[in-house]
Design goal:
The chain has three domains: about 100 residues, Beta Complex (Ferric Hydroxamate Uptake Protein, Chain A, domain 1), CATH 2.170.130; about 190 residues, von Willebrand factor, type A domain (Rossmann fold), CATH 3.40.50.410; about 180 residues, 3-Layer(aba) Sandwich (Rossmann fold). Helix content is about 30%, strand content about 25%. It contains 14 helices and 20 strands. It comes from Copsychus sechellarum.
Length: about 525
């Protein structure tokens, strides 16, 4: 059978490259987070696994799906099925359908061999799993932050090492699977080994066995902050686009404060889990600086990121549930992805040559690009400026912090009509719209939409925008001169310049703009 590709809950039809592709959907995708457009035939903007559940091909336990690319169409309907409400889309450039996929033995074997870490009794048939590659379904770069303080003591420290070793084995470490490293927290943090040091479970197990107990205060906050800042650099083996995770093991309670470290970790896009063992008893609570230390350090205080074990004895049954959490790619809410870590400003030409009905098509284009991103107060943000000879900020980055509000604000933009001064408009947007967010954590993008020759110079203002850290995409329609478009666009210009003769052609460009933003985000990202 064809090899299946493991995808995430959020992989969309337009992210797949082949005409027919066999994919494997993970289990337990959060149904309410799916974006699905249509019924039976889905717009390629839709989540593949969402469409497969919606159409009844799989359930929420995941499974194999065959995706067939189809041409675009008009009027994708909204239908509620199998717990998912699909949405209406008036037009999209391409579609797909889903059917039950071929069962792929190799991938299933990975799933099985990882989930049952019992020693082989020799009865089981040999598995055809690529051991070196590891579990490709579990994409994670993980730092185990182990407790090396006097709180835990030498004996429990050894039990902790055994537990971490079991977790490491069950994760399915490999070149294309999870990578792990270990940091020991005590008086001062010490990185014991990095992500890049080992890519085989055997080597990792050996390295864990060799760890020596350091002793000292349990300065977990200090160690967490240090790990978030120093551990995940590219030169230390962190991989682009793969979730960064710190699993903090805490015996008892920390000697220092975790709150600031938790904030730093979130700023760095790191997902913090806390495994607390032997929680403080009622008598001991008086010695704890901050009773809510777990809630302040974890990625999100939603129950998913905290994990409790009563003691270090008999911990085997806790291994698998922890591994399942660490491999739940789509639950890693603190990861920075292009979808949740960008600011996109749209600079919209409102000159008289556009006309009211074409202006609506421009707004539809803007909506469809914005729709693909996770817009929230801590996620991506969108702003829009309309220009003629004058400029009008329709809304800034902090005016609307939910996707629904942004889409409503785009729909409400009124057409100005007038001349075309694109250069001035770029300067205005750089200063007034991007200025206030210049030092924020998100990467900045400007999409300039114009249908004609500018009356002023565009090259200077575009160069200044790029110098201010803004990546510029230029989208031209009808009479927009190619030289102007290229002069405005970021390097490499070919991949940042788009042109269509007709306004109806804007629709086809949506996936390319989204992909371009994600590509630039990944290339720029630490």
């Amino acid at each position: 059978s064809l090899a299946s590709t493991a995808i995430t809950c959020f992989t969309r039809g337009l992210d797949l490259r082949k005409g027919t592709e066999d994919v494997l959907c993970p289990a337990n995708c959060p149904l309410w987070q799916f974006y699905v457009f249509g019924d039976g035939v889905y717009a390629s903007l839709s989540s593949v696994c969402g469409a497969a559940i919606h159409s009844g091909v799989i359930t929420n336990t995941g499974g194999a799906v065959r995706v067939q690319t189809l041409p675009g169409q008009e009027n994708y309907p909204a239908v509620n099925a199998n717990g998912i409400q699909s949405q209406v889309l008036s037009r999209w450039a391409s579609s797909f359908s889903v059917t039950a996929g071929a069962k792929n033995t190799a991938l299933e074997a990975v799933g099985r061999s990882v989930s049952t870490a019992r020693p082989s009794t020799g009865k089981r048939p040999k598995k055809t799993v690529d051991k070196k590659a590891g579990n490709k379904d579990c994409k994670a770069d993980i730092a185990f932050l182990i407790d090396g303080s006097y709180n835990i003591g030498q004996r429990r420290f050894n039990l902790q090492k055994n537990f971490v070793g079991k977790v490491a084995v069950m994760l399915g470490i490999g070149t294309e699977g999870p990578h792990v490293g270990v940091v020991q927290a005590s008086e001062h943090p010490k990185i014991e080994f990095y992500l890049k040091n080992f890519t085989a479970a055997k080597e990792v197990l050996f390295a864990i066995k060799e760890l020596g107990f350091r002793g000292g205060n349990s300065n977990t906050g200090k160690a967490l902050k240090y790990t978030a800042q120093k551990f995940f650099s590219l030169e230390n083996g962190a991989r682009k686009g793969i979730p960064k995770i710190i699993v903090v093991f805490l015996d008892g309670w920390p000697s220092d404060d975790l709150e600031e470290a938790g904030i730093v970790a979130r700023e760095f896009g790191v997902n913090v889990f806390i495994v607390s063992v032997a929680k403080p008893t009622t008598e001991e609570l008086g010695m704890v600086q901050d009773i809510g230390f777990v809630d302040k350090a974890v990625c999100r205080n939603n129950g998913f990121f905290s994990y409790q074990m009563p003691t270090w004895f008999g911990t085997t049954k806790y291994v698998k549930p922890l591994v399942q959490k660490l491999c739940s790619h789509e639950q890693m809410l603190c990861s920075k992805t292009c979808y949740n870590s960008v600011n996109i400003g749209f600079l919209i030409d409102g000159s008289s040559s556009v006309g009211e009905s074409n202006f609506r098509l421009v707004l539809e284009f803007v909506s469809n690009v914005a729709k693909a991103f996770e817009i929230s107060d801590i996620g991506s943000k969108v702003a829009a400026v309309q220009f003629t000879y004058d400029q009008r900020t329709e809304f800034g980055f902090t005016d609307h912090v939910s996707k629904d509000k942004v889409l409503a604000a785009i729909r409400n933009i009124r057409y100005m009509s007038g001349g075309t001064a694109t250069g001035d408009a770029i300067s205005f947007t750089t200063r007034n719209v991007f200025g206030p967010v210049r030092d924020g954590p998100n990467k900045n993008f400007l999409v300039v939409l114009t249908d004609g020759q500018s009356y002023d110079d565009v090259r200077g203002p575009a160069a200044a925008a790029q110098k201010a850290g803004i990546t510029v995409f230029s989208v031209g329609v009808a009479w927009a001169p190619l030289d102007d478009l290229k002069d405005m666009a970021s390097e490499p210009r070919e991949s940042h310049t788009f042109f269509t003769r007709e306004f109806t052609g804007l629709e086809q460009m949506v996936p390319d703009i989204i992909r371009g933003i994600c590509r630039d985000f990944l290339e720029s990202k630490q």
